[in-house]
Design a protein that fits this description.
Blueprint lengths: L1 H32 L16 H8 L9 H6 L9 E3 L7 H18 L5 H6 L3 E2 L9 E4 L1 H6 L11 E7 L2 E11 L5 H7 L8 E8 L23 H6 L3 E13 L6 H4 L3
Antiparallel strand pairs: 1-6, 2-3, 3-4, 4-5, 5-7, 6-7
Helix pairs in contact: 1-2
Length: about 260
């Protein structure tokens, strides 16, 4: 099972490029249709070989719409492959802002306690056939929207746990562009309340190597390789920053410390 999850992680990295291309097309459309200035378009995967990865991900199109969910499901602690924002000094203003987000989110997702409704409304589940602690249902229109504005009622993903009769809603995940500074993240969800995270220092196995034969103790987001020099020495392909910023929220928790737990 651990090997299966490592393979899924690998596929997810390739798959996110497809999401980036979708986002790029939506960005272009928005620029054409909106009179207001849009944020400058930037690649979501700087430094990555787009041609190679797009070719390899073609055979795994079923994972292409689910990369963000897989990455957000790892719940890794701070380490060489994880960068998290520091918690700032608590403030009453920040606590009020965070509560306002929850007051918007709870009624917005209440209907999705029936997971069938989430599916009907365009949320897509990531690999239901694989055992997971949290199953992520993502709406890619909301993911694209999050590249430009923050709408607390439109989380990129809904988080569910598997139960005997289907899925039980637990929470949600917000995303933000990887180009964002901490000040910009703070404007969305205060950094004194929540810790945004991003995934870094990723070494892909050598080009052409079958993912089932890759040494996942070295490569990937749980591998030992965490520097560009080590990746190059291993014949891998280095990606310094993977995916967008993410933050989890569990609005139904009764313990305040668990509501914005990573």
């Amino acid at each position: 099972m651990k090997r299966d999850h490592r393979i899924v992680l690998f596929l997810a990295v390739f798959a996110v490029l497809s999401i980036s291309r979708v986002g790029a097309r939506q960005t272009q459309t928005q620029k054409q249709n909106q009179t207001q200035n849009a944020p400058p378009a930037k690649s979501d995967m700087p430094g990555m070989d787009m041609g190679d990865t797009q070719h390899e991900s073609a055979a795994n199109s079923h994972t292409a719409m689910s990369a963000n969910e897989q990455m957000s499901d790892m719940h890794m602690e701070m380490g060489p492959h994880m960068h998290m924002t520091d918690l700032r000094k608590p403030s009453a203003v920040d606590e009020e802002r965070a509560e306002q987000i929850l007051e918007t989110l709870r009624p917005a997702i209440e209907q999705y306690k029936d997971y069938h409704k989430a599916l009907d409304d365009g949320f897509q589940i990531f690999h239901p056939e694989l055992p997971q602690d949290h199953y992520h249902f993502t709406k890619y229109r909301y993911a694209a929207e999050a590249q430009f504005v923050f709408n607390p009622a439109h989380p990129t993903s809904l988080l569910y746990k598997k139960v005997s009769d289907g899925y039980q809603l637990e929470g949600a995940m917000y995303t933000a562009p990887k180009r964002f500074t901490e000040e910009q993240l703070n404007e969305r969800v205060p950094l004194s309340v929540a810790r945004w995270h991003e995934h870094v220092n990723f070494c892909l196995p050598p080009k052409g190597e079958r993912i089932t034969l890759a040494n996942w103790k070295e490569f990937g987001l749980k591998g030992s390789i965490a520097t560009e020099d080590a990746c190059e020495a291993a014949g891998g392909r280095w990606i310094p920053l993977v995916f967008n910023w993410m933050v989890h929220v569990y609005p139904y928790e009764t313990d305040p410390a668990k509501i914005w737990a990573h």
